[in-house]
Amino acid sequence: MKSGDLAISRRSFIRGGIATLAGSALTLYGARTFGQEASLTGAQFRASGKSAKIATRQLRGDLRYLDGSGGNIIVLPGPDGILVVDSGLATSESQIITALSAISSRPLRHLLNTHWHFDHTDGNEWMHLAGATIVAHENTRKRMNQRQEIPAFSIVLEPSPPAALPTVVFAQSHRLLLNGQKILMERYTPAHTDSDVSVFFENTNVLHTGDTWFNGYYPFIDYNSGGSIRGLIAASSENLQRTDTQTIVLPGHGDVGSRTDLLAFHEMLIEIRDRVSALRVKGYSLAATISAKPTEKYDAKLSGGFVSPDLFTRLVYKGV
């Protein structure tokens, strides 16, 4: 893998949340780790969270989302206490508390995780200690409770502290009735990881897809966590089945969108998968496939995140 494939800007971290250094580009390829205990790069990873600017944005009704630390965080205030979806970076605790306090004076009581990745669960511990019950797929707890590696970025994560682990887990689906909202969590076909779930707010027709959808960026597929391009396409199809023309859709990373945006993403995945598959059937090596630029049609629109066209091609090639 070329080290240049993984050069990451501060902006793409704040929007993408998987790896960066505050204030400058960093090439992650090499013998570096992001540990739960702060190694050099672990400390730098969290350092960006300390200075993260949290923006509060409207969704529909009482639903809002926080943008700026790790993945997008949904907030639902109400008499049952504040509910959030995903917890961002632990070092953004003070900014997130300030943002939540501006939304509601109610205590934090519920945290739903869309999957296990660090940029979506790093704040779990402080949120749990603040009083939140953590709900997630059973594989989220399993992976957080064990040492994990993300080879594409040379990331190693030691087991999360006990207080960060989900306290309520499920295998396929889980329903909640909180703050006047019917909320459905459903497992995806293993896609980005094997712990992905959607969170659907039925009353307001708002869907949080977690990292099964990156809006405006090439997605990351974590094969080491059970993800695959085939699974991501299947999960993308599931997103289309779970939405209609009125659904507001929040991705794990990127701006809020609609079913139309989901469809464009789905068609892109299929088109690039088919192109890479055809090249591989012809006997193209990985290097030759990358040189053929199967993503070129979409590069201007989707290469602004932490997954470059070359890296995305590598991820697709691995799964076809």
Could you walk me through the main structural features you see in this protein, from its secondary elements to its overall organization?
With 320 residues, the protein is an alpha/beta fold. The protein has one domain (3-318): Ribonuclease Z/Hydroxyacylglutathione hydrolase-like (Metallo-beta-lactamase, Chain A, 4-Layer Sandwich), CATH 3.60.15. Helix content is 33%, strand content 22%. It has eleven helices and 18 strands. It has helices at 10-16, 40-50, 93-103, 118-121, 124-129, 138-144, 229-241, 259-281, 286-291, 296-302, 309-318; strands at residues 7-8, 26-27, 55-60, 63-67, 73-76, 82-85, 108-112, 133-137, 148-150, 155-157, 168-170, 173-178, 181-187, 197-201, 206-208, 214-215, 248-250, 253-254. The protein has a seven-stranded mixed beta sheet with strand order 3-4-5-6-7-8-11. Strands 12-13-14-15-17 form a five-stranded mixed beta sheet, with no helix packed on it. Strands 1-2 form a two-stranded antiparallel ribbon. A hairpin with a 2-residue loop joins strand 3 and strand 4. Helix 7 packs antiparallel against helix 8 (259-281). The longest helix is centred in the C-terminal third of the chain and has 23 residues, at 259-281. The radius of gyration is 19 Å and the shape is globular. The two termini are 18 Å apart. The relative contact order is 0.12. The model is unreliable at 1-43 (pLDDT under 50).
